[in-house]
What does this fold into?
Amino acid sequence: MYRGSSWSDIRDMIFHRMKWGWMFLSLFFGIVPQILRGLRWRLALEPTGEKPRRRTCTFAIFISYAASLVVPRIGEITRCGTLKHHDGTSFAKGIGTVVTERIVDALFMLGVTAFALFAQRKTFTTFFTRTGTNFGNLLERFTTTGYVVTAICIVALILMIVFFMRRLKVFGKLHSVLHDLWEGIVSLGKMKSLGLYMFYSFAIWLCYYLHFSLTLYCFDFTANLTQLDALVIFCAGSYAVLIPTPNGAGPWHFAVKTMLILYGVGAANAILFALVVHAMQTALIIVLGVGGLISLQFLPKRTAAYRITENIH
It folds into this structure.
């Protein structure tokens, strides 16, 4: 995709054509949602009896995003491990709350997508046509028999797992782990501050949107795009990062470039926009990750005695 681009074009884009004021404002809204994620995560852990520090939760989030640049999707494991190492939080409960968190995020993303699809149906139709995506054909290939067989296999797998868990003693410890995992997953239903949790979720996605949309004002060739245009491009990019690559590198570039071209931006400018914006966002993740890792070294670990006292109170 970048075969025709030169380093001189990239340097010119960054140092001469980009409005740094808008970029710094965009990066600010890249920091805020990570902090909010830390606060939301702590809120989700409270019903499980875990009380990690706000700073530890936030730094763990910083580190998790940076870790995913090295190994895609490893961040969820990394942040739970960080919290266990520094604050003694149950790893299984942490994973459980992360599962719930991802479900909530998916629902928010689906809501945003539904609105964007309704607002600009023609643009999405053109995008799917140009990228060769045909959801109708994909669904037609999966027949009724396919659905039934899949359901039977899933039920059989669950029954097999339950059977072995009850028969073999080696799964005794696993039962405790699964109990903690489930406790983390259902923590949302036991939460006293559910309204605050949902507010954090809304604010996180609003900041994500601003993190991207404000970058459009950094360049003259994208400054005339509307907020609805930005929302559609944001949705396309958000789904692209689901493909496990470092920070969505590759799929995100392709999705954003394609959408910009659909909105009338020249191909050369669209390609450079995707490269520069993604590079800036990735640099921010690295800086926050390193900062979080260093900050944790100065944060004293909680002792077992301290954690017992906290649980008593």
About this structure: The chain has one domain: 7-312. DSSP finds 15 helices and no strands in the chain. The first helix runs from residue 7 to 17. The mean pLDDT is 84.
